[in-house]
Design brief:
The protein is 26% helix and 23% strand. The chain has helices at residues 5-15, 21-29, 34-38, 126-131, 142-148, 159-169, and strands at residues 44-51, 54-56, 68-76, 83-89, 96-98, 105-107, 120-123, 137-139, 153-155. A five-stranded antiparallel beta sheet has the order 2-1-3-4-5, with helices on one face. The longest helix has 11 residues, at 5-15. The mean pLDDT is 87.
């Protein structure tokens, strides 16, 4: 890894081929506008190995793990635009993961793209997010998202999706019950 975290992300991103015409046609057929494919950074493609909320490139895999084709999006810092991570989405399996795990979501959580009620649009999957022209976010790592995101949220995937967001972003503290100590004075 290089001295600056952004260097390894950008190097990997630039090494990946841009999405091919077949992927572009499929995205367009699913209602994704051309601007979402190319802006702010063009989608690229790669073979990746998924492991929960994280993924690896084939040259990083030490074991015999299955790889599958995925579309990759460059995830940038919302303030300074510095590349932070890569998000991989495999349309065939629906798997979604981050490479370095530096963020728990893809999209803009703080930008001007708020829902009409002032809520952050949260999409259930990358295809819906892309179809919205990358407006809002998609949660990748629910465990870490509860510490990074603050509502209100607009569940763009309906009531079931709203329940899922509520469940995944609610912080339930772990509570331990200490046994009362008995007095030795008895």
């Amino acid at each position: 890894m290089s001295a600056f975290p952004a260097d390894d992300v950008m190097k990997r991103y630039l090494a990946c081929p841009i999405v091919g015409q077949l992927q572009i046609n499929s995205l367009l057929a699913h209602g994704v506008p051309p601007t979402a494919i190319a802006n702010p950074d063009v989608l690229v493609r790669a073979m990746v190995a998924f492991s929960g909320c994280r993924f690896d490139f084939p040259d990083e895999v030490r074991q015999n793990r299955e790889t599958e084709p995925a579309l990759l999006a460059l995830v940038r810092d919302e303030i300074d635009g510095c590349p932070l991570d890569l998000a991989a989405w495999a349309p065939n399996s629906g798997k979604l993961a981050m490479w370095r795990g530096r963020l728990s979501y893809i999209g803009e959580a703080c930008g001007p793209r708020l829902h009409e009620h002032g809520a952050l649009p949260v999409y259930a999957d990358p295809l819906s997010w892309l179809a919205s022209d990358r407006n809002g976010i998609v949660i990748v790592d629910q465990m870490h998202a509860r510490h990074e995101l603050i509502g209100p949220f607009a569940a763009m995937g309906g009531l079931g999706h709203a329940r899922s967001i509520l469940h995944s972003l609610s912080i339930t503290p772990r509570i331990f019950v200490a046994q009362a100590q008995q007095s030795d004075a008895a």
